[in-house]
Write a structure and sequence with these properties.
heterodimer; A: alpha+beta; Alpha-Beta Plaits; B: 162 residues; Mago nashi protein; six-stranded antiparallel beta sheet; 33% helix; globular; transport (chain B)
């Protein structure tokens, strides 16, 4: 397979950029990869059909600016992301620990499709910002079933959209 | 999968790869309802873009975009690293055909893969293929990624993917 490696020009930590720039930066990142593998590199079918990729306009906003991550509201509430859960954590364990901060409107505790154990993360929805904010503040770094859990917001405001 | 604490290991690894990260998955076919597909991508700035086009019953294309917290990008990296997909190769996988095609593109630091194959109906298809181990790796990784993306999209937008 003949792959031409271009020398990209930086970018990647500069999020103050327009849609075309954002697209270009991902392409530049790809160019920097030193190991390329797969039939996709010699297959042109992708360029002839619609999708989410280059050329599409999905109301491109900006991504997060790492220094200031501000939570974003979801359609019916505020979603938090819990990570580094012990593999035997149950929905009840999560409910017990997190309903102290408010009524849990939704809980996704997804499984590893191969092992049947949980994948290690959970998503929890609260109705109000205050409840979710408190859960993040109080539960981050806490111990659950012997595992130190990480609790953050799931969705954040884009750099320019605020 | 890995019995020796894969979480810790991959967290250490991802520290160095903060910027160069991109994931795209596509599954689709062209049939009597036109081009029906599902595609999503995680971009390095946290943007999750999602497109789902089904012409059956209603012919609207659903396109959604949201910025996820850096912790979720880290989780996606962890899932990818633990799957060891970067060690695989699609050379012996079934070719995409009229029934459908799947594409998985991942950029992680210096490694860039762009794999494609046909639709996989069940694990039977996997076990009967010339590269069952590689295809099984792909099969489970795709399910785990879809599972996470569907949860994120469903919770944030209150729409049911597929």
């Amino acid at each position: 397979m003949d792959i031409e490696i271009h020398a990209g020009e930086g970018g990647g930590d500069d999020f103050e950029m327009g849609e075309a720039d954002a697209e270009r930066s991902v392409e530049q990142m790809k160019d920097k990869a030193t190991s390329k593998k797969g039939r996709g590199f010699v297959d042109s079918s992708r360029s002839t059909r619609p999708g989410v990729g280059p050329g599409d306009r999905l109301e491109d906003g900006e991504g997060f600016a790492s220094a200031r991550v501000q939570p974003a509201k979801s359609v019916e509430g505020w979603i938090i992301f819990i990570n580094n859960l012990h593999e035997e954590t149950s929905e009840e364990n999560i409910m017990d620990a997190f309903q102290e901060y408010g009524v849990i409107k939704n809980l996704h505790l997804n499984q590893d499709r191969r092992t049947g154990f949980i994948k290690g993360y959970a998503l929890v929805e609260y109705e109000s910002f205050k409840e979710a904010d408190e859960a993040v503040a109080r539960m981050h770094g806490k111990d659950l079933l012997g595992s130190t859990i990480q609790v953050t917001w799931a969705f954040v405001k884009g750099n320019r959209r605020a | 999968m890995n019995s020796v604490n894969p979480t810790k290991q991959s967290q250490r690894k991802t520290k160095m790869t903060e910027d160069r990260f991109y994931v795209r998955y596509y599954v689709g076919h062209k049939g009597k309802f036109g081009h029906e597909f599902l595609e999503f991508e995680f971009r390095p700035d946290g943007r999750l873009r999602y497109a789902n086009n089904s012409n059956y019953k209603n012919d609207t294309m659903i396109r959604k975009e949201v910025v996820v917290h850096p912790a979720i990008l880290e989780e996606v990296k962890r899932i990818i690293q633990d799957s060891e997909i970067l060690r695989e190769n699609d050379a012996k996988w079934p070719q995409p055909d009229r029934v459908g095609r799947q594409e998985l593109e991942i950029l992680l630091d210096d490694e860039h893969i762009s794999f494609n194959t046909g639709k996989i109906g069940s694990l039977m298809d996997v076990n009967n293929s010339p590269d069952p181990e590689g295809l099984r790796c792909f099969y489970y990784l795709v399910q785990d990624l879809k599972c996470l993306v569907f949860s994120l999209i469903a919770l944030h937008f209150k729409i049911k993917p597929i």
